[in-house]
Design a protein that fits this description.
Elements: E1 2-6, H1 10-21, E2 29-33, H2 36-45, E3 50-54, E4 56-57, E5 60-61, H3 63-72, E6 78-82, H4 87-96, E7 100-103, H5 109-138, E8 142-147, E9 152-155, H6 157-163, H7 167-170, H8 185-198, E10 200-208, E11 214-225, E12 232-241, H9 243-257, H10 267-284, E13 287-295, H11 298-305, H12 307-322, E14 330-335, E15 338-346, H13 349-364, E16 367-369, E17 372-374, E18 378-385, H14 395-408, E19 414-416, H15 423-438, E20 444-453, E21 459-470, E22 474-476, H16 478-488, H17 491-511, E23 518-522, H18 525-528, H19 533-544, E24 551-556, H20 557-561, H21 564-577, E25 580-586, H22 594-598, E26 603-606, H23 608-611, H24 618-633, E27 637-640, H25 646-654, E28 659-660, E29 669-670, H26 671-684
The structure holds ligand C2E and magnesium ion (2 copies).
Ligand C2E binds next to strand 21, helix 16, helix 17 and strand 25.
């Protein structure tokens, strides 16, 4: 500790120094000045913790000495030393800010030390208080202090700015001044319970500003016990306004629950509302309806006019939908062109029908978007609760099923969910939707099954068989989806993909040095009748530079028999290209052998139906041998399908069947496996 001693009387100065050096509880560093001016000059240059000041100096005397020094260093503790004990002077000096007043004659080590110690302590306390006061006033947090009866005794400027009340309005009031009506009695009772039990409460409170506006604040309340008793003497509350935070929180919350394009509730919020609506329906004994709405042919608009216009149209649709329902109903966008509606408080089914009709009518009038006039309709599925299936999780799902039925029924209409829209029908419909996406998602695969030439024992052909690699269902058999592709017309793009992929594969095998294999590709009825079939195949052959004789098209009898003249015409053109034609599953269709003469066919494929029970089943055995000899007589090639075991093979060989295909040799396999199989068989085989 650094002390400045201003004392002109040398013996006194020596005495004081000695007293200080006797110190047992701290160390002092003493600087000595003999005149006031000298002391003042030192104070300007150096930092001191305390001054010991003799009042009678050569250049100053009495109260004036203190006054001049104190003016120079108002925050520095000054202990005054005098020769005489003058009560009046002592009081005056204390009032003027002197720390203490010591009479030199009475001085001993104890008195001096106590006085110094006390002066320093007091200075520290004052500094702390000054700091606290600065913090109190300069902090951005609002601070409110009450007494034990919650009368406000102090608030800071920040709280005034936050609330709009001035200090005077707060003082003598209670925190009720800024209370909003947002919280219940229970809330405050719990707050007080916790505060009184633990001495602390923290949480969010909505308060009210002077202008009536409510605002959220994070509030930290402490109960301050009095130092004498353990009773609470004050409460201190610190308010942090969190309006901004709340706003961004609300915004985030909004975004999480709404569709950004249309501003409608999204799927998440929809399910929330549905849950509430169900509970309410149970209480009120009313019905609710869930509508699943899908725009008809929206994709076509999106594809032709572009996404921007598509989006504009969706917004316009959302706008119109809003006008069709009541305030209490929910309209949500589930994604894409799918919307869902919850209609509450229904008494009769007809109420819902009216809404559905209104929606269909409202949506169907012309839209002008991006300078275009566009029409769009919607198909709606309706599911009532309580109703047929009261499983809450299925309310929307079944409305979706009903919507698919509405689509099937010709679009632009609505259908109520009913039990006959059973799962099988639904699955079929789901399959259809998935199938539509499968091509662009590249979920189709071609597998290849080898055909063995019985004379040479080598693979001289493969049949390309399509598979659907569905992300959830796994590998789907063509028997399950070909009829659907056929029905929906999707077989045309998919069929083209098959032809092109098969041609590409022939090219790869040719390039890899395998002897020319015949690639058999199946063709469905609709494919066979498509107007640009010839061009499409020609294009594929050309693009991959395939010798046409390596491609064999498999057609079933029933496809061929559909329109004999047209068939003959098309087959002729295909033959002109140089392709081979096979009749698949020969003998299973209703056909007359007569037409065989007229059609330029190369191969007959014996259906595995006839192979299955060979050689035991004599009827099948005679059919198989008849087909083989028919082929031979007409100079056609014969292929037996579905050969699974040695006995079947032996029988067919005995009948001189030319080629065989079946699990006995290999299942249909992916191209890479086929390549390795060809490689190993080439090594072993006749070549
Ligand atoms: P398909 O043309 O008669 O094809 C022969 C079917 O018999 C294939 O069924 C094949 O996997 C199966 N198979 C082969 N060997 C055996 C065997 O030893 N035992 C048994 N039990 N079955 C055997 P897959 O691949 O399920 O094809 C079914 C049908 O789907 C095909 O019958 C064909 O009509 C159609 N298909 C397959 N791919 C295509 C395609 O790309 N386009 C068209 N339009 N139809 C296709
Ligand atoms: Mg086939
Ligand atoms: Mg077949």
């Amino acid at each position: 500790m650094k002390i400045l001693l201003i004392e002109d009387h040398k013996p006194d100065a020596v005495l004081l120094r000695e007293l200080l050096m006797e110190d047992t509880w701290g160390s002092f560093y003493l600087v000595h000045a003999e005149r006031l001016e000298e002391g003042v000059a030192l104070l300007k240059q150096e930092h001191f913790d305390l001054v010991l000041l003799d009042l009678s100096l050569p250049d100053a005397f009495g109260h004036d000495t203190f006054g001049r020094l104190h003016q120079q260093a108002p925050n520095l503790p000054i202990i005054v030393l005098t020769g005489i004990d003058d009560e009046d002077l002592a009081i005056k000096l204390a009032q003027a800010g002197a720390q203490d007043y010591l009479v030199k004659n009475d001085l001993n080590n104890g008195i001096l030390h106590r006085s110094i110690h006390y002066a320093i302590e007091r200075k520290r306390a004052e500094e702390k208080l000054r700091l606290a006061a600065t913090v109190f006033e300069s902090t951005l947090e609002g601070i409110l202090i009450t007494d034990a009866k919650t009368n406000i005794i102090s608030v800071n400027q920040a709280l005034c700015s936050i609330t709009g009340y001035c200090v005077e309005e707060f003082i003598e009031s209670t925190p009720n001044l800024i209370k909003s009506e947002r919280h219940s009695h229970v809330f405050f009772r719990q707050l007080w319970d916790i505060l009184n039990k633990t001495g602390q409460w923290r949480g969010e409170i909505w308060n009210r500003r002077k202008n009536g506006e409510t605002f959220p604040a994070w509030v930290n309340i402490s109960a301050v016990p009095s130092s004498a008793t353990s009773n609470i003497s004050h409460y201190v509350a610190v308010f942090t306004e969190i309006t901004e935070l709340k706003l961004s929180e609300e915004r985030l919350n909004y975004l999480a629950h709404h569709d950004p394009l249309t501003g409608l509730p999204n799927r998440l919020l929809f399910h929330d509302r549905l849950e509430q609506a169900v509970l309410q329906a149970q209480r009120s004994k009313h019905m609710i309806a869930v509508m699943f709405l899908d725009l008809d042919r929206f994709k076509a608009i999106n594809d032709t006019l572009g996404h921007v216009i598509g989006d504009e149209l969706l917004v316009a649709v959302a706008e119109r939908l809003k006008h069709c329902a009541r305030e209490t109903d929910t309209i949500a966008r589930l994604g894409g062109d799918e919307f869902a509606v919850i209609i509450t408080r229904i008494i009769h089914e007809e109420d819902v029908e009216q809404v559905a009709q209104k929606i269909i009518q409202t949506l169907s009038s012309v839209y002008s978007v991006g300078g275009y006039e566009v029409f769009i309709t919607a198909s709606i599925g309706i599911n009532l609760y309580p109703g047929i299936d009261n499983d809450r999780g299925k309310l929307l799902e079944n409305a979706d099923v009903a919507m698919y039925h509405a689509k099937q029924f010709g679009r632009n209409n609505y259908k109520f969910y009913s039990t006959d829209m059973n799962a099988v029908a639904f699955e079929r419909l789901m399959l259809e939707t998935n199938l539509r996406r499968a091509l662009e998602r590249q979920e189709f695969r071609l597998y290849y099954q080898p055909q063995i030439d019985m004379q040479s024992g080598i693979v001289n052909g493969v049949e390309a068989l399509i598979r659907w690699q569905h992300p959830e269902l796994g590998l789907v058999s063509p028997l399950e989806f070909i009829p659907l592709l056929e029905e929906t017309g999707l077989i045309l793009p998919v069929g083209e993909w098959v032809i092109r992929t098969a041609c590409k594969q022939i090219r790869e095998w040719l390039d890899a040095g395998f002897p020319s294999l015949i690639m058999a590709v199946n063709l469905s009825g609709r494919q066979f009748r498509q107007p640009n079939l010839i061009e499409m195949i020609e294009q594929a052959l050309h693009e991959f530079n395939i010798p046409p004789a390596q491609l064999e098209l498999e057609l079933t009898e029933s496809v061929m028999m559909d329109n004999l003249e047209e068939t003959a015409e098309t087959l002729k053109k295909l033959k002109l290209l140089g392709l081979k034609i096979a009749i698949d599953d020969f003998g299973t269709g209703v056909s007359s052998l007569g037409y065989l003469k007229h059609f330029p066919v190369d191969t007959l494929k014996i259906s595995h139906d006839f192979v299955l029970n060979l050689p035991a089943d004599s009827a099948d055995a005679s059919i198989a041998s008849a087909v083989i000899s028919l082929a031979r007589n007409m100079q056609l090639s014969s292929v037996a399908e579905g050969v699974e075991n040695q006995r079947q093979m032996d029988f067919l060989r005995s009948q001189d069947c030319e080629r065989m295909q079946g699990f006995l040799f290999s299942r249909p396999i992916p191209a890479e496996q086929m390549t390795s199989l060809l490689t190993s068989w080439q090594g072993m085989g006749g070549k």
